[in-house]
TrEMBL record:
It comes from Paenarthrobacter nitroguajacolicus (Arthrobacter nitroguajacolicus). It is found in: Membrane. The keyword Secreted does not apply. Gene3D superfamilies: Fumarate reductase/succinate dehydrogenase, transmembrane subunit. Keywords: Heme, Iron, Membrane, Metal-binding, Transmembrane, Transmembrane helix. The lineage of its organism: Bacteria, Bacillati, Actinomycetota, Actinomycetes, Micrococcales. The chain crosses the membrane at residues 37-60, 80-98, 119-139. This is Succinate dehydrogenase.
Length: 158
């Protein structure tokens, strides 16, 4: 009869995790459970936000042929669409960041590597969320530069 060793155990049949697979640090409480729940709930909300976005941009009116600078300017003139796109940006970034964080935790073996990869991930996420939020709320389709109104066409006369 052959005995099969318990996965990741130091001894046959011990059921304990071998020391090389233990991570340093204490228990993080419910964080991983909350992160798991966030992934499920944000995924459901993102499906609604994304399909709503695609429906309005691609199927309503002239469809894809209507999407240009003026279309975006008109859409972001309405606070409803600003908050819709903001929610989509924030949820997509936080959902993706949480997924990549999980991958880093699973595959980065050294604590220092795991730390620095997550720091780069969090910094990139923060920059994109801040810049995206600024673009959505400070977007001005009719800027005036040195008394000249740009870009023209759909902007009212000064």
């Amino acid at each position: 009869m052959t005995t099969i060793e318990t996965p990741r155990s130091g001894k046959i049949g011990s059921g304990k995790v071998a020391p090389k697979y233990n991570r340093s640090g204490s228990s993080r409480g419910n964080f991983e459970m909350i992160a798991w729940l966030f992934m499920r709930l944000s995924g459901i909300v993102l499906v609604v936000l994304i399909f709503g976005h695609l429906f309005v941009n691609l199927l309503v009116g002239e469809g894809i042929h209507a999407i240009d600078f003026g279309f975006v300017a008109g859409k972001w003139a309405d606070p409803f669409w600003q908050f819709w796109d903001l929610a989509m940006l924030w949820l997509a970034m936080l959902h993706g960041t949480n997924g990549v964080r999980t991958i880093i935790n699973d595959y980065a073996e050294k604590d220092s590597t795991r730390f620095w990869l997550k720091m780069v991930l969090y910094a990139a996420t923060l920059v994109i969320i801040i810049l995206g939020t600024l673009v959505i709320f400070t977007f001005n389709p009719c800027p005036v530069v040195d008394g000249v109104q740009l870009p023209g066409g759909f902007c009212p006369a000064p």
